[in-house]
């Protein structure tokens, strides 16, 4: 039944839809969402940004672990004679070494549900939930259209993404009500566990997420003490923050990849440094340049 559905979708293929659904699938990938967390942190609200980063990093980590545990084959890998994938579509389903990544559950479906549920819960408006539903459907459907996921993969992604959202709904108020010192200790404890995970977890994607989590949560206390900045300010200052902050993220990714050895630990260290930049380095720069805190 699943194969029949995917084969029917293959009959819809044309250059316009191919480009459209490839674009839609790319805005549902990890790299896209990993940039949105820092933007919320820098320009909307620090606590809100931390919540989103933790939810997304938790989603990335659990999805990578679940993929390795279930280790199911993608449609295009199981039936290469029935699916002719473009290079762009194929690239969204490959490991860094060029091999097919496992299929279940769909990371795009899971991360998209987590992010857009976060948006809906944050804005609490009908139009926000309508946009969330449309985006979750479009990104998930794009994975079927491109031939890189089975329908059950989407259901799995939605299920595990929903568990993360529900956990966030119940845990966030508890953490928010803790004294600031306890919140800081909790962040340091999670950062320490993530740092230990860099040396014991063999998963390439998981190591990156552990590194980012260790770097970002481990420096939150420093940010509160030494890098207070204006989160919400005039639009042109916000634009400078976004361009400057994201540009340095890309520079760090490229530069560190070129100078560090090609090992799992080095990958984790690379993302740890990016995490430090996100929650401490960028705010420190903003504090002394374009987003100085308002005088009391």
Automatic annotation (TrEMBL):
<dbReference type="InterPro" id="IPR000326">
    <property type="entry name" value="PAP2/HPO"/>
</dbReference>
<feature type="transmembrane region" description="Helical">
    <location>
        <begin position="127"/>
        <end position="148"/>
    </location>
</feature>
<feature type="transmembrane region" description="Helical">
    <location>
        <begin position="268"/>
        <end position="290"/>
    </location>
</feature>
<keyword id="KW-0472">Membrane</keyword>
<feature type="transmembrane region" description="Helical">
    <location>
        <begin position="32"/>
        <end position="57"/>
    </location>
</feature>
<feature type="transmembrane region" description="Helical">
    <location>
        <begin position="186"/>
        <end position="204"/>
    </location>
</feature>
<dbReference type="InterPro" id="IPR036938">
    <property type="entry name" value="PAP2/HPO_sf"/>
</dbReference>
<keyword id="KW-1133">Transmembrane helix</keyword>
<dbReference type="Pfam" id="PF01569">
    <property type="entry name" value="PAP2"/>
</dbReference>
<feature type="transmembrane region" description="Helical">
    <location>
        <begin position="239"/>
        <end position="256"/>
    </location>
</feature>
<feature type="domain" description="Phosphatidic acid phosphatase type 2/haloperoxidase">
    <location>
        <begin position="47"/>
        <end position="169"/>
    </location>
</feature>
<keyword id="KW-0812">Transmembrane</keyword>
<protein>
    <recommendedName>
        <fullName>Phosphatidic acid phosphatase type 2/haloperoxidase domain-containing protein</fullName>
    </recommendedName>
</protein>
<feature type="transmembrane region" description="Helical">
    <location>
        <begin position="154"/>
        <end position="174"/>
    </location>
</feature>
């Amino acid at each position: 039944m699943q194969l029949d559905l995917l084969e029917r979708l293959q009959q819809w293929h044309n250059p316009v839809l191919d480009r459209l659904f490839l674009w839609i699938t790319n805005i549902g990938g990890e790299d896209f969402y990993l940039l949105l967390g820092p933007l919320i942190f820098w320009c909307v609200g620090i606590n809100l940004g931390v919540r989103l980063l933790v939810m997304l990093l938790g989603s990335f980590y659990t999805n990578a672990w679940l993929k390795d545990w279930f280790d199911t084959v993608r449609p295009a890998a199981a039936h290469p004679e029935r699916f002719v994938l473009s290079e762009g579509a194929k690239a969204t389903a490959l490991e860094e070494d060029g091999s097919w990544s496992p299929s279940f559950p769909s990371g795009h479906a899971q991360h998209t549900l987590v992010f857009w549920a976060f948006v809906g819960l944050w804005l609490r408006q009908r139009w926000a939930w309508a946009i969330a539903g449309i985006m979750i459907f479009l990104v998930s459907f794009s994975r079927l259209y491109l031939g890189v996921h089975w329908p059950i993969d989407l259901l799995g992604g939605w299920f595990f993404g929903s568990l993360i959202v529900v956990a966030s709904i119940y845990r966030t108020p508890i953490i928010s009500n803790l004294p600031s010192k306890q919140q800081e200790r909790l962040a340091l404890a999670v950062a320490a566990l993530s740092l230990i995970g860099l040396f014991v977890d063999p998963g390439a994607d998981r190591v990156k997420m552990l590194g980012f989590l260790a770097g970002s949560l481990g420096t939150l206390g420093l940010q509160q003490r030494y890098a207070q900045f204006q989160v919400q300010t005039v639009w042109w200052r916000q634009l400078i923050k976004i361009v400057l902050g994201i540009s340095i993220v890309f520079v760090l990714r490229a530069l560190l990849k070129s100078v560090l050895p090609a090992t799992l630990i080095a990958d984790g260290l690379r993302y740890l440094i990016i995490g430090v930049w996100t929650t401490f380095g960028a705010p420190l720069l903003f504090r002394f340049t374009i987003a100085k805190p308002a005088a009391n």
